[in-house]
Amino acid sequence: RLVPPSHSVSTPSDPRKNKMPFRRFVEIGRVALVNYGKEYGRLVVIVDVVDQNRALVDAPDMVRTQMNLKRLSLTDIKIDIKRVPKKKTLVEAMEAADVKNKWESSSWGRKLIVQKRRASLNDFDRFKIMLAKIKRAGIVRQELAKLKKESAA
Amino acid sequence: MAPKQRTPKVSRNPDLVRGVGKYSRSKMYHKRGLWAIKAKNGGVFPRHDAQPKAPPPAAKAPKFYPADDVKKPLVNKRKPKPTKLRASITPGTVLIILSGRFMGKRVVFLKQLSSGLLLVTGPFKINGVPLRRVNQSYVIATSTKVDISGLNVDKFDDKYFAKEVQKKKKKGEGEFFEAENEEKNVLPQEKKEEQKAVDTALIKSIEAVPDLKAYLAASSLQSFACYSLERGCT
């Protein structure tokens, strides 16, 4: 893909980065999702880089720790912080960038919320979903029948 | 005979070192007052001869001697404890019955009986399961609860479910075929009334929750997709 993406979130301002096929970079302020280990599923902010493989990460309700970059899945979201900010500063920056809402409205974030919801379903919940699916299918079929009739006429 | 209350034995001979008493044998003889006991009894220690026991009643020779020596079973003083109810099962929980006539039905749990079995009702109008006893092991407890506070189930116990004892009839040739037709088990009207009494209150609280009635009416056998090994069924 040689055409740069249209939405500005992932277009790096750095002109060198603009030409790369990578769009999400390990940088200070990058929001990432932990994909392995004890903190699995948590959104963290990269707050410093330790070396080639490890970064210092932090989150509002977590003790700041180092993590291997392999444990992190980078997201599109980036916040504006200096290297290793105080916890208070970090929280303020996250509020200012509205990380939570951006995440929950992104398609990735929404998918995870749905997955979590599905995993925590009750037997009764599953039954209600079955009824809802049947209802929805019925409505769709009705509309389809209507359209068929119109096109046949 | 109740045992006499004894004061705990206190030694009159304190230990100097473990195994070595402070007082000698002769001193202890004096301390224990054995001289006084002897003096009271005329210079000798009192003897307590065995009392003549009453002769045991003459037992008849048993009619039957077993051919081989029969081993006596060991004494068993174990008292069985009441079955522990799983923490997930509370009054009002919806249970899924796993075996028996009503396999797959979702029913409402009322209370645990003294035998350990669970008292359960469909309600009868919704899914055809009457007031019934069910073993805890053959049941999955869901996390769905029904409000059961208005219900009084105190009068149901194991005796309520006992089979009626049938008087043994002498089989006459002609009576044999007629008797078969007569002995149909009809549920007495009062049991039906009791079922209705329990169910009306229950159905009211069920209808308060949307879709719950349809849920109880449906059978879980139609959709076993939830029963995966790693997750089990909630």
From TrEMBL, chain A:
Protein name: Large ribosomal subunit protein eL14 domain-containing protein
Pfam families: Ribosomal_L14e
Membrane-crossing residue ranges in chain numbering: none
Gene Ontology BP term (one): ribosomal large subunit biogenesis
GO cellular component, one term: cytosolic large ribosomal subunit
Alphabetized SUPFAM superfamilies for the sequence: Translation proteins SH3-like domain
Annotated source species: Castanea mollissima
Sequence similarity: Belongs to the eukaryotic ribosomal protein eL14 family.
MF term (GO), any: structural constituent of ribosome
Keywords linked to the UniProt accession: Ribonucleoprotein, Ribosomal protein
Large ribosomal subunit protein eL14 domain boundaries: 64-136
TrEMBL record, chain B:
GO molecular function, one term: RNA binding
Region (Disordered): 1-24, 45-85
GO cellular component: cytosolic large ribosomal subunit
Pfam families reported for this sequence: Ribosomal_L6e, Ribosomal_L6e_N
Gene Ontology annotations of biological process type: cytoplasmic translation; ribosomal large subunit assembly
Compositionally biased tracts (Basic residues): 74-84
InterPro entries in alphabetical order: 60S_ribosomal_eL6 (IPR000915), Rib_uL2_dom2 (IPR014722), Ribosomal_eL6_CS (IPR049633), Ribosomal_eL6_KOW (IPR041997), Ribosomal_uL6_N (IPR005568), Translation_prot_SH3-like_sf (IPR008991)
Keyword tags: Ribonucleoprotein, Ribosomal protein
Domain called Large ribosomal subunit protein uL6 N-terminal: residue spans: 3-56
Keyword Ribonucleoprotein: yes
UniProt family annotation: Belongs to the eukaryotic ribosomal protein eL6 family.
Protein name as catalogued: 60S ribosomal protein L6
Organism of origin: Castanea mollissima
